Amino acid sequence: MAVHGPAMTDVARLAGVSHQTVSRVLNGHPNVREQTRLRVRAAIAELGYRPNGAARALVTGRSQVIGVVAQNTTLYGPASLLAALEQTAAEEGFAVSVGSVRDLDHRSISAAVERHLAHRVAGIVVIAPVESAGEALERLPKDVPLVTVDGDPHRPMPLVTVDQVAGARAATQHLLDAGHRTVWHVSGPSDWFDGAGRIEGWREALLAAGVSPPPLMPGDWSAASGYRCGQMLARMPEVTAIFTANDHLALGVLRALHEFGRRVPAEISVVGFDDVPEAAYFIPPLTTVRPDFDAVARASLQMLLTQIESGSGGALRQTIAPTLVARDSVAPPPSR
Amino acid sequence: MAVHGPAMTDVARLAGVSHQTVSRVLNGHPNVREQTRLRVRAAIAELGYRPNGAARALVTGRSQVIGVVAQNTTLYGPASLLAALEQTAAEEGFAVSVGSVRDLDHRSISAAVERHLAHRVAGIVVIAPVESAGEALERLPKDVPLVTVDGDPHRPMPLVTVDQVAGARAATQHLLDAGHRTVWHVSGPSDWFDGAGRIEGWREALLAAGVSPPPLMPGDWSAASGYRCGQMLARMPEVTAIFTANDHLALGVLRALHEFGRRVPAEISVVGFDDVPEAAYFIPPLTTVRPDFDAVARASLQMLLTQIESGSGGALRQTIAPTLVARDSVAPPPSR
DNA sequence: GTGCCTTATGTGAGCGCTAACACTACCCCA
DNA sequence: TGGGGTAGTGTTAGCGCTCACATAAGGCAC
Questions:
Q1: pTM to 2 decimals?
Q2: With contacts defined as CB-CB under 8 Å, which chain B residues touch A118?
C-alpha cells in the first residue's frame, strides 16, 4: 500500500558510493568531494529519492516536525499565527503538527504536549494565552525545546508576545489625543494575558493623563458580548470614546450604537484591536491596532530553532510592537 | 537531549514478558491471556511508557499522521475545516500535519503533498477549491489514501463537498420568495469550485422562476471587492436584492449601500454565505447560508480512514447540505 | 499414546537512517 | 624516510518497533 520509494542504499548504488556518503551529502556534512556530491545529487534527482523522516527520527530521537498547541484556531489571531508559523517552518524544512485543545486547563494542554512528545517532535510552540496553561508547562520535561506565544510574561520561559500593553496604550492615547476626556474599555477575558495586557495599557494611558479609569465592561472576545456591552454604553450620554479589546467586540459595539442611533464617530469614537481584514469595511471603517503575526511567528520559530540546535534552554523573551491603524471611527468628541 | 523515555523492552522486562507481547497488547491483538494483558498495562502505566511513533512508522511504512494541504488557513472556511479535522483526527488517534501553500497551482500542491509523503503520512486531505489543483492530484501515486474537500465535482476522486449549488439556490429562492423580481449576485472567483457552484445555484433558481439572470458582479471573497461591487449596485435603482458568495463580500456590500444611503433591508435585501460568527452583528444582522464544517470534516476523515484500513481507493463522494439562517437583512422589496 | 489442532508466547530479522569509528590516500615538515 | 596530520570514504551497530515464524502447552479425536 505505502509508496515504498527508493531508499538511501538505492541512491548509493546508483551513484557508486556508500549509503553513508549519501547521508553526508543530504545533511550537508563537509569532507565530501565536490564531484561526489554532484554524482549523489544526480542520483537523488534521477530516482526521485526522498529521505524517510521516520527513520531519521528514530535514530536521531527527533523528527523534523514542530508541534503547535493552540486552543481555538478558528479565531483570527491564532489562525493567522498558525498559518505564519507553518509558512516559516516550511522554509526551514520543518513540518507543523497541530494539536488543538478544547480547553486551556492543564490537563488538556499536558495531553496535547504528550501527544506531540510521542511523535518525537523537535520542538513545541504553545499558544497559551491563559494562566492555567503556565502551570502545565512548568511540569514538562525541561529538555524539550519549547516556546510559548502570548503566554505568561511573569514566568521564566522562552516567550514571544505581542506588546499588548503598548498597543492598548497607543489606542487609548489616540482617543485622548483626539480630545476625549476619558476612554471606556470593552475588555477581553481578564484571565487571558492578552486581555489583561490590554486592560493594563488602557489603564496606564488614562492614569498617565491624570484620568481615573471608568468601570470596565467585560467581554469575551465575541461580537455578541461586544453587542451587549454596547447596548449599555449607548445609553450613557457621557460616553464619547470606546476602546475594545478586539475588532469583533468593536463590531458588536458598533451595531449596538447604531441601533440606539448614536453616530460613530460624530458622537462616539471607537478603536479596536487585531486589524482583521474586514475592519476596513465596518461601518464606519475601524481604527484599530495591528499586531504583526508574521513577526511573532518568525521570532518564535527562530527561538525554537536556536534551542533545538544548541540544546540549551534559556529563558529568552521577545516582544513585538503592534502599530496603530487610523481609519474613520475616531473623531473629536461632540462639542457641548 | 531528547526525552528518551522507556522503550518497549523496558515495559516487557517489568511485566516479565517479551517485547512482542507488549506490542500485541498495544495493538489489540487477540491471543493474549487476560492476566498477561493486565500485567503489561500495569507496567505501561507504571513507567509512563509511550510508543515511539517514528519506530512504528519506520517498520509499518506509515505514521499515525494525516497530512492536510490547504491554501489560506486564515480564511474562515478553511480555518474552521482545519480545526474540525484536527479535532476529529485526534479522537481517532491521528495527528494532523498542516502543509499550507501560497498558491493553488499544481507545482505548489505537488510540493506540499510530496512533503507529506516524505513524512510517510497515513493519508492526505487536500482542500483544493480550484481547477488547477485537480491536475496535480491526478498525477499522484494511486496508492496513497487521499480525500479532496471542496474539489472538482467532475473528477473521479474521493470528494467531500458542501452542496454549494443547493445553498445558493436556497439563498436566491429565499429572496424571490420575499417578493423580489430578480436577484443580483456578487460572486467569488469563478475558477474556485465553491464560487462556480454558488453562481450555478443562483442562476438555476432564477431560471426556474422564469427570470433571466442579471449581469454577474465578480468578486474575490474579500470585503474590499464586495465594497467595490456594492458601490456599483448602490447606484442602480432597480436593484432590490443581492446574494453574495460569502459573508465578507456581504460586509463590503453593506458598507457601500450604507454610504450611498440605501437602507437594508427596507430598500435592498442582502444574503451572504458561510455564517461567520460575526454575521449576526453586521448592520443589519445578515441572513446567510451555513455550511456544516464539522460534518464535512467528519465525512472526509471517515472516508480517509476507510481507505487507510481497507487499502482500497474507490471514488466515493459525499455532499453536505448547508442550511439557510434567516436574520434581518431580507425584507420584501419597496412597493412602488 | 500419536497426531494435529488451537492458544499463548518468544525469537530473530530488518525497516532506513545516523553516529562512531576504521580505513586509505595523500601532503607536509622535520 | 617516517611520523602525523587531514580529507574523503567505507563499515558496522543499533535506534524501537512490527512481521513472520518458531516454540510450548494444552485439548481432543482416534
A1: 0.89
A2: 50-53
